[in-house]
Design goal:
192 residues; alpha/beta; 7 strands; 26% strand
Length: 192
């Protein structure tokens, strides 16, 4: 079976948002062998980013090996309820198919960000990723270049140095980040 990867973003159905934010859903299941590329991932649901999570465990099982414990971590009452939902999502699913179970814990809710901190407590790289994902059509080429570099460096200083030749140009990077933050807030994608 071909291995697939999850990057910096994990999509979930909107109906799971409250379960994740309340800590009742600490696991997601994906069909096949899936490997997260990163330990920290931004989870999106209901058309918006909801949380930054840390992947705590990744393991694989066949459908027939799933347990009530797996179901509970995924926000279901029983194994039967979980398998029924998986079969609804993955129509040709059978008992011998492999699934990947990805356990996680929420490390930052994106609906309760601090107004007190610069960039509402978001890391520059996370803010850049959200801007590229949700505002790409509204950005000019220079803004996209700055945000893309920030996703690599997670440093305003390093991006200013790499793109503009010196840290004295940090104000350009900060201005783009403030613009992104304000647009994400105006659209209701993140909240304090």
């Amino acid at each position: 079976m071909k291995k697939r990867f999850i990057g910096r973003h994990l999509m979930v159905k909107g109906k799971y948002v409250d379960l994740i934010l309340s800590g009742k859903k600490t696991l997601t299941i994906r069909l096949g062998i899936v490997k997260p590329r990163y330990e920290e991932i931004i989870v999106h649901g209901g058309g918006r980013p909801i949380a930054k999570v840390k992947v705590t465990r990744v393991y694989h099982k066949r459908i027939k090996e799933l347990s009530d414990n797996d179901a509970a971590k995924d926000g279901f009452r029983s194994r039967e309820e979980l398998v029924k939902e998986l079969k609804r999502i993955y129509e040709d699913l059978n008992e011998n198919d492999w699934v990947t179970l990805i356990e996680f814990k929420v490390i930052q809710r994106l609906d309760q960000l601090s107004q007190e901190h610069p960039y509402m407590g978001l890391e520059p790289a996370d803010l850049a990723r959200l801007g590229l994902r949700y505002l790409s059509n509204e950005l000019n080429a220079e803004e996209k270049k700055i945000l893309l570099d920030l996703t690599r460096t997670n440093s305003i200083r390093a991006t200013a140095y790499r793109l503009f030749g010196g840290i004295e140009k940090r104000h350009i990077v900060r201005r783009v980040l403030r613009k992104i933050l304000n647009k994400l807030k105006d659209k209701g994608l993140i909240r304090g």
